[in-house]
Amino acid sequence: MIEASELKPGMVVLLEGEFHSVVSAGYHAGGGQQGSAVFTRVKNLKTGHVKELRLHPGDKLEEVSLDHLEMEYLYTDGVAFYFMNSDTFEQISLPSQTIGAYEKFLQPNMRIPVQLYEGEPVTIAFPPAVELNIVSTPPGLHEHETSTFKTATLTNGMEVLVPQFIKEGDTVRIEVASGKYLERVRRGARKP
C-alpha cells in the first residue's frame, strides 16, 4: 500500500478493481477550511480512459508492480492485437482499447515490451518515439530549406510535416504521443 502523497507519474495502482497508470500527481497544501489534497490524473490501462482524482494525502492505494516481457507484434484482427514470446512461441492478445492510439505505430515483427501482472498481459510499454521510412514526399525547395515544412507519407500511411531536406527513402524519428517529426535518422558513420 502507498499513500496518495507518495504518488509519482509512471506508477501503476489498483483502483476499483482495475489497473491505472499515474499520469500526473501534485500535492497542494490546504489553507483555511480547505485541507491539503493530492490532485492526480490516472489512465485506465484497459480502456485508456483518463480521469482526475482529488485524494487526501493519507489515502491508501494499492501499488502494483508489473513485469516487463519483450514480445513480437504479430497482427490484429480488428478486435484484438496479438503478440508472441520469441523464446516460448506462446501468443497473447490485448484488446484494441488497450492499444489505443499506438495502433498506427505498430508494425509486424516489431518488438514491444508487454507489461504483465501475475503472468496476465495488462498493457504495452510503447517507446516514446519510433523510426519510420518516408514513402513519398515532394522535392524540397532549396531557398526555404530550414524555415518551412512539407508533407510526407510514412510507411504506416500516416502523414507528417517534415523539413525540406527530407527525401523519399529517409528514415525519420516520430514522437508517438503527438505524431510529430523529431529528427532524421542517419545510418552508419562516415569514414575519415
UniProtKB/TrEMBL annotation:
Keyword Protein biosynthesis: yes
GO terms classed as biological process: peptide biosynthetic process
UniProt keyword list: Elongation factor, Initiation factor, Protein biosynthesis
Residue ranges that the Swiss-Prot or TrEMBL entry lists as coiled coil: none
Gene3D superfamilies, A to Z: 2.30.30.30, Nucleic acid-binding proteins
Limits of the Elongation factor P C-terminal domain: 130-184
A Pfam family it matches: EFP
GO molecular function: translation elongation factor activity; translation initiation factor activity
Segments forming domain Translation elongation factor P/YeiP central: 68-122
GO cellular component assignments: cytosol
PANTHER family per record: ELONGATION FACTOR P, TRANSLATION ELONGATION FACTOR KOW-LIKE DOMAIN-CONTAINING PROTEIN
Similarity comment: family membership: Belongs to the elongation factor P family.
Protein name: Translation elongation factor P/translation initiation factor 5A
Species, as recorded: Paraburkholderia piptadeniae
